[in-house]
Amino acid sequence: MVHSAYDSFELLRDCPSKIESVESYSSKILLGCTDGSLRIYAPSDSERSSLATGELRKGAYVLERSLNGFARKPVVSMKVLESRELLISLSESISFHRLPTFETIAVITKAKGANSFCWDDRRGFLCFARQKRVCIFRHDGGRGFVEVKDIGVPDMVKSMCWCGENICLGIRKEYVILNATNGALSEVFTSGRLAPPLVVSLPSGELLLGKVFTL
Prior knowledge:
- The chain is mostly beta strands.
- The protein has one helix at residues 45-48; strands at 19-25, 28-33, 38-43, 61-67, 77-81, 86-90, 94-98, 103-108, 116-120, 125-130, 133-141, 144-152, 157-163, 166-171, 174-178, 185-190, 199-201, 207-209.
- The chain is globular.
């Protein structure tokens, strides 16, 4: 018997631009698109009346707002920081936006060309990968960010996530733990020959690491 871990259902269709990234904000869905736009979808009026605050549900979503020119390049990743009412977006660089207005309040200029990032909400630490470097910045509140670390790694980082005080990185076809204090790397295991490494943080604080097994 095959176990189905997830249910699949369609929330919206016919987005006019290719979708690069998806994030949820309260009961809304945020789509970062390849043309640099941000499209905000909300439950239809018939669904909204029965929807609890902050809840996503199976049902029709309609376009509420479209922010053309949100970024100059594709919006490849986003993360909502509900405790701080902020949105982080990764495009040409990494930007912070105030919610619910989506006003840009800070741009990390050193993150230009970054391809991945992760956020530690407890300490307000932003970590991002750029070329063969891993950088850590601390949010000082408001619009202020202070650089904490700049660490060299063996290759480009494909995926990353905070793991307590350290950072789990997907590099090449393997996973490693980066000591954020001294830069030391510890091997975990490989992701398999076919799939790139994928690190996902779970609400429990655990990490989900992708691995492909071949027969």
